[in-house]
Design brief:
single chain; about 170 residues; mainly alpha; about 55% helix
Length: about 170
C-alpha cells in the first residue's frame, strides 16, 4: 500500500517573509544635481494605469489608431510612474527631453525589467485586441449597410405617372 504524501502549501505569512527579504526599495540616484527617486516595481494599480494610459493615447475618439504615439507615451509613463520626474505639457519639449537626454535610461537601469516587459506585452495585446475589435465592428456595420440596400432593392418600386397616377413596377 502506497503512502499518500500530503502536499503542504506554503503559507501567505511565509511568502510575506520572503517578500520582505527580497523586495527592492526605492533607489535614489544623483542625476545632474537632481535626486531621482526610482521605484523598482509598480503596484498592481499603477501597472494597470500605465497600460491603460498608453493604449488610450494611441486611439482617437473617432476610432483612429496612432501607433507612433506608443513609444512616446511609454517613455512618459516610465519617467512619471517609476520615478519622480515632472514632464512638460508641451509635447515637442517632452519629445526633445526623451531623445536628447539619458533620463529614461537612468530610470530603466533601476526598475523591475520583468514587470516592464509584462506591461509592454499587455499594451501590445490590448492594442491588437482593440484593432481587431474595431475591424469586426466596421465589418458588422458594412454588412448592415449592404443588407439595408439589399432590402431596398427587393421592395416594389413606385412609379408616378402624370396621366395614370401611381403604378407599381
Amino acid at each position: 500500500m502506497a503512502l499518500k504524501s500530503r502536499k503542504r502549501k506554503i503559507s501567505i505569512a511565509s511568502l510575506d517573509k520572503v517578500l520582505k527579504e527580497q523586495a527592492v526599495d526605492i533607489a535614489t540616484e544623483q542625476w545632474f544635481g537632481n535626486e531621482v527617486k526610482i521605484k523598482h516595481t509598480l503596484s498592481f494599480s499603477e501597472a494597470l494605469a500605465f497600460v491603460d494610459d498608453v493604449v488610450s493615447s494611441c486611439f482617437h475618439t473617432t476610432g483612429g489608431y496612432m501607433p507612433e504615439l506608443q513609444e512616446f507615451v511609454v517613455k512618459s509613463n516610465i519617467l512619471t510612474r517609476y520615478a519622480n520626474f515632472n514632464l512638460p505639457d508641451n509635447l515637442e519639449h517632452r519629445y526633445s527631453l526623451f531623445y536628447n537626454t539619458d533620463a529614461v535610461d537612468v530610470v530603466i537601469r533601476h526598475i523591475n525589467q520583468k514587470q516592464l516587459d509584462d506591461i509592454l506585452e499587455s499594451i501590445s495585446e490590448k492594442i491588437s485586441y482593440l484593432c481587431e475589435s474595431n475591424i469586426a465592428a466596421i465589418e458588422r456595420q458594412m454588412n448592415e449597410v449592404v443588407s439595408a440596400f439589399t432590402e431596398l432593392q427587393k421592395r416594389p418600386r413606385l412609379c408616378v405617372c402624370q396621366h395614370y397616377g401611381a403604378i407599381r413596377n
